[in-house]
Amino acid sequence: MKNLSFLLISVLIISCGTIVNYDYDQETDFSQYKSYNFFHDIDSGLSEFDNKRIIYVTDSLLQSRGFVKSENPNFLINFFAKEFISESNSSIGIGVGGGGSSGSIGVSGGIPIGGRKINQLLTIDFIDTSKDILFWQAVSDAEFKEKTTPTQKEAYYIKLIGKILKGYPPKK
Questions:
Q1: Dist. CA 163–CA 138, nearest whole Å
Q2: What is the pLDDT of residues 53-77, one digit of tens each?
Q3: 3-state DSSP assignment of residue 29
Q4: What share of the chain in percent tops pLDDT 70?
Q5: In what order do the strands lie in the sheet with 68-69?
Q6: Would strands 133-145 and 117-128 be described as parallel, antiparallel, or unpaired?
Q7: How many Å apart are CA 27 and CA 5, to the nearest integer?
Q8: Beta strand pairing status for 75-86 and 35-38?
Q9: Domains: count for the chain
Q10: Does residue 101 form part of some domain?
């Protein structure tokens, strides 16, 4: 129970403000896609650990929705990411001032708080295997703290991929 509450709190803390944009071929009959697999040579730009997390979470979510992982799939999944490190926008201000009858002197400064954050743009592509064309794509923009534990990273990907796959298949 303690681990579950820690996981839920971690999800709330590290993955606020996720934005997902979708694009897809409007002529596609999405009901024809029942089986999937991943590209064998995914070059995501992420660590091998993060690749495994993304594949595991995507597998779990798609299979829970009735899709079947197959060696002869209807579509292949590819993903890649770009990451940017940003400094925290929050700081504590400190000031010192003085004054007198003929003038004043002032000094101030800011101490950053909150640590550095990683902005991650994750793109997931669904490619039709028979036509070799892209038919659905999601691009997410999310942020998490630079120093996260493996448990926090897994929680981050569970929430992120869950939000991404809410847009598949698209509602017409």
A1: 10
A2: 999 999 999 999 999 999 999 999 9
A3: coil
A4: 73
A5: 19-24, 133-145, 117-128, 75-86, 35-38, 68-69
A6: antiparallel
A7: 44
A8: parallel
A9: 1
A10: no
